[in-house]
Write a structure and sequence with these properties.
Length: about 325
Amino acid sequence: MTISSATALAHPNIAFIKYWGNRDDSLRLPQNGSISMNLAELSTRTMLTFDPSLPRDIFDLNGTRQSGESLHRVTNHLNIIRGLRGVSVHAHIMSENNFPADAGIASSASAFAALTLAAVSALGIEMSEKDLSRLARRGSGSACRSIPGGYVEWYRGNTDVDSFAVSFAEPGHWDLADCIAIVDIGQKKVGSSLGHTLAKSSPLQEARVLDADRRIDICKQAIRNRDFTALAEVIELDSNLLHAIMMTSHPPLYYWMPATLEIMYAVQSWRKTGTPVAFTVDAGPNVHVICESDSSKQVRQRLSKMPMVKDVIVTHPGGKARLV
Ligand code: PMV
């Protein structure tokens, strides 16, 4: 094989109905389906070069050479993709996030979506969006939702073949904003891969999973109808259910910090006094404050005035993963 390269860009996504817990950890088959929105202003750009002269994979993230778990995860994912072509050639991967590594914004979704697209195209493999999404899922579950654009549903599926994500509304369908209130930077937390394995130890997980399709339907309908009141109610419920599982796992995981709860209270009081806003919180303490774009300036100002908020990053619905 000769040297071949490709560069791909993908956006992270914020889940409105969240994924937590796998039926199959190695295939990353989720226990429940999920819904998300890609985040346009944030992205991972990955340049990948397959080079027969390399003795092993080399992975540079934001200019820093990676080793250990971070390199291992990338190599494992590339092994799956190399296996599709029956090749063993190593790669040099240069990946850059346009958002600070210490902002507490999960980058594995955009990272594995961009890595998958770059590797597949550098190997000259023709692949449908569905199959790219299935493949990205193997690197990080939520990465399958960063392959299609806009508002996305990840079908839970039953096997590797039917667990993938599709777009159900274009980014321009509804001009929402995600105002990410950063309350903590750089603190090490329990990563989501370990979190997924702990989910089943919570006595509440079964109830959360059983009710997931109902929440997915409500959330999709709210997005289709641009019904903010319905969206706010279902995403806050879903976020609280996720954290209830985390806090009741064995061992328990506490991602909220006092500042997280303070913002959640503030968001609820702003909504009561007429501003359409809602919160959702992932596997970290930062709060994603969702609103319609015309209120984002006001929401950012209010968040910025809170003493424990270190920064506010405002993002809008983003497109699909693409070659650049
Ligand atoms: O894709 P992972 O393994 O990083 O898991 C993502 C988990 C959450 O962000 C908490 C929820 C989600 O659906 O994105």
